[in-house]
Amino acid sequence: MKQRFLWLGLLVVLVLSSGARSAHAQASDSTMSDAEIEKLRDAAYVASDRVAVFMKILDARAKAIEDVLAKRHTPDTPGDLHDLIDQFGGITDELNDNLDEYKPKHRDLRKVLPKLLLATERWSTTLRAPADDPAYKIVRKIALDAVRDVHDAAAAMQPEQEAYFKAHPEAAKAEKDRESTDAVKGKDH
């Protein structure tokens, strides 16, 4: 009987300690600031606006990476770069998820896709700028893969969108009307 209680006690300790670790991990996952999250929420009603907000957030991360590189190298530099690149990869993955969601719904992204393609080129260059370092080697590869995925998705969507909206002019008008209505709803909330 005592052995059962010991095992039960050990199990409780293990569950509680793993719960504390996962809570800590969630608390430290600050990929985006509250202001950035709020901007994304505000832009949720218009797909092209939401993509544009993602681009601004990623441009800000790219600028932060460039700023760290421009400063004198300190012992904290590799860790700072790791954190920024890790955030960059996470935000880029989220943008890619949004593109995946918009594609089958034929959300009109024709104006923002060329800008997104150019941005992915800038972001790739920025992510490759830091010298190789084991501190951020893996997160950089993940971030570069995420940027490549966004680039590939945008490149594939661009001609598909042009063809779809050319073949379905009523869909283009309906999408524009829906965006106008959704934008008004978004401002009311």
What's the short story on this structure?
The chain is mainly alpha-helical.
Q: What structural class should be given to the helix and strand makeup?
A: mainly alpha
The whole-number mean of residue pLDDT values reads: 85
Helix count, DSSP H or I runs of 4 or more residues: 7
Alpha-carbon distance between the two ends? 59 Å
| Rg, Cα atoms, Å | 22 Å
Order of SSEs, N→C? HHHHHHH
Report the sheet with the most strands, covering strand number, pairing sense and barrel closure.
none
Q: pLDDT below 50 for ≥5 consecutive residues: which ranges?
A: 4-28
Overall domain count: 2
Please state roughly what percent of the residues sit in beta strands, choosing from under 5%, 5-15%, 15-25%, 25-35%, 35-45% or over 45%.
under 5%
